[in-house]
Amino acid sequence: MEPIEGKILGKQVAYPQHYSPHILVAVPRALNREMYGLDEQALPFCGKDVWHAYELSFLTQKGLPVAGLLKFTYPAHSAFLVESKSLKLYLNGFNMSRYGQTAEEGLQEVLNLIRKDLEELLQTQVDLSFHQGSAQAGAFDFEHYELLEQLPESRQLNFDDFKENPALLTAADQQGVFQVATHLLRSNCKITHQPDWGSAYIHIKGDCLPDKGALLRYLVSIRNENHFHEEICEMIYKRLWDRFEPEELMVSCIYTRRGGIDICPLRASSPHLLPQHLANAAGLSQKLLQQ
Q1: Distance (Å, rounded) from C-alpha 251 to C-alpha 254?
Q2: Active-site option among 49, 117, 141, 196
Q3: How far apart are CA 257 and CA 261, in angstroms?
Q4: Are residues 109 and 183 in the same domain?
Q5: Domain at 169, CATH number
Q6: Known catalytic residue: 189?
Q7: Annotated catalytic, 49?
Q8: pLDDT tens profile 153-198
Q9: Do 27 and 150 reside in the same domain of the chain?
Q10: What is the C-alpha to C-alpha distance for residues 17 and 90, in angstroms, rounded to an integer?
Q11: 48, 66, 98, 241: which has the highest count of C-beta atoms within 10 A?
Q12: 18 lies in some domain
């Protein structure tokens, strides 16, 4: 039987010419979580999935185009995630449809429809906002994170594992807290196997911490994994959680825009560890180079 994720992904599908909520596809989170021993009733994290859709547009009743960026978030404990290509097609269905006598009226109608459709699809609360060209991005949540690939010791490492290998996660002889990042995150789409590029940000505190070089080697080993973005983030989190049993843990994966959309899964052991600006559906945070 074809997986639900393959209903649209990897197939030629005509762009809808009008509002088409039926094209949206919900993907159950449970199947992938079972692979990593994640209990849906006792998840070791809270979090959000943060989406930026850069090409939302519609017409007013007078035919005036309105265009901008849609940001929306929904909780990681939701039973489903929305499949990204189906969302892209769904949003394109608004492009030539008319809403409202004014741009403001039309925008309210469109946002209400999107919120309603996503909440019905995902069976959870969805928060969203709309931003046009004059909107100013806010602060950057990861200002003081060390970039692993720029550490001197990283230049001496050999990289031979390109399928996810948790055995690479060895401990350092230290305790406390560190915040690290890499721009070398790469995985592949679960269905099409096309490459997805991104950055990972990790906050970890505890009596046992990973060796930074070993952590970089582990993150590079994800290079040929075939998973959705949300699944990659949860996999990294669960591997670190199991291996080091930290007091605090946060993993944020910020993926490159593709098809006018980027996805940023955020997972943390406590809500206060989530990146404040990125997790806020109402405002924009500072973007990375490829967003």
Answers
A1: 10
A2: 196
A3: 5
A4: no
A5: 3.30.1130.10
A6: yes
A7: no
A8: 999 999 999 999 999 999 999 999 999 999 999 999 888 889 999 9
A9: no
A10: 10
A11: 48
A12: yes
